[in-house]
Amino acid sequence: MPDEMARPLIRSRGEEGGSRPLQATASELGGPVIGILGTGDFSRSLARRLMAAGYQVVVGSRNPKFSAALFPKEAEVMSQMEATSKADVVFVAVFPEHHSTLVELRPTLAGKTLVDVSNGLKINRDAPSNAQQLAELFPESSVVKGFNTVSAWTLQMGPRDGSRQIFLCGDDSRAKSSVMQLCRTLGFVPVDLGLLASSLEIENLPLYLFPSWRIPVVCTLSLFAFFYAYNFLRDVLQPYVTGKKNAFYKMPIETVNVTLPAVALVMLSLVYVPGVWAALLQLWWGTKYNRFPGWLDRWLTSRKQLGLCSFWCTALHAVYSLCLPMRKSARFQLLIAARQVKEGPVWVEEEVWRMELYVSAGIMALGLLSLLAVTSLPSVANALNWREFSFIQSTVGYCALSMATLHTLLFGWGRAFDPAQYRFLLPPTFVLVLVLPMAVLLCRLALLVPCVARRLRMIRRGWEKSRHIRCAPQEECPRNGLEDFSNV
What we know:
single chain, about 500 residues, alpha/beta, 8-stranded mixed sheet, 8 strands, about 10% strand, elongated, disordered C terminus
């Protein structure tokens, strides 16, 4: 049986069996006639989607005879003047630098709704936007900005394979309402961003390249560069300078593998530093109504990205660690060690226990981090209530940080007190790495002290030190699990 979802919405010109007739067109039901100015990929996909939804579509082209073959024959391809005279709502799907060529259509576009779908070539920080310029060219028309954040592919395949949201703005509420209804008919969710002045923000949206990931990625790369250089000095350069021992073979795998967990643990600590800092500020102020500094607000909103960067480094560390025995250098070192072993016991109980505990703690930390990463996915997070989500991201998150810190402590064992480990007078890497997570965990323990936790809980419930607002005792206030101070 053929897959119905695999069939095209509308058969193009030339396919056997002709075109599929529309069962109940919007025009038959008194719906608006939709005009499209432009014949590019976006225009063709938009025409197909509109016709599949039952709208009558007219396409305005500078060369109708040539462009007619690009559209299904149900769409009427005609001159721009004819299309604008027939249409009630007109999509302006031409490049913004060509908007001025449409001025001659001003009489036929008077009183009609124009939907500007254009985007710029670069982020525009200064007004006016393309939509505002279009409104200046056609003052008697109602300009609505929208449909610029969806691609031709999304229009072709439908909202199930792309973003469902359509951002809209415009000064004419009636025109905007008609475009919003059109969005719903096409299967999208319209989001009203207000007046046409917001069009600059809408036009910039498709041009941003991972804006929320910029600082976390830069932070990850900076930490990696620092710790890699630090490990290179201690493990590669120092043996070569002091003993002419060539250890440069460690650079591609071993040095990277030592660097990745250092970055992962510091990044995981940075996830929980702003929450602790915010709690301390609220305790200091004695109120929750003071705004946090801008840098702290941005830090709080970047915690998800910081955590995912930490998980990425942790996963890479696990893969690199599994690959260590595959190296030729590891096999040669094993053979050398086997030849140097003299008769006698080679079982060192302390080293055996250290390795067993160290690996076990690392596996547990990776498992907990994986749980945090999975629950950060929108599809999973939307299936959880707030208490479940906060429990995983806060309580389980601190367990992951504790387990990763324990993993690092077991790795270091007693080497922090061995003078031979301080090469070039530099402390071992794990000593530097442990500073931040240990500070975060100690602050967390301090916030769990009953008197401190109670004061913070009162502040979160609206109590203010300066106003002396009475707050009911804890036993009189049934808790719902939403006032946990760690979820700032």
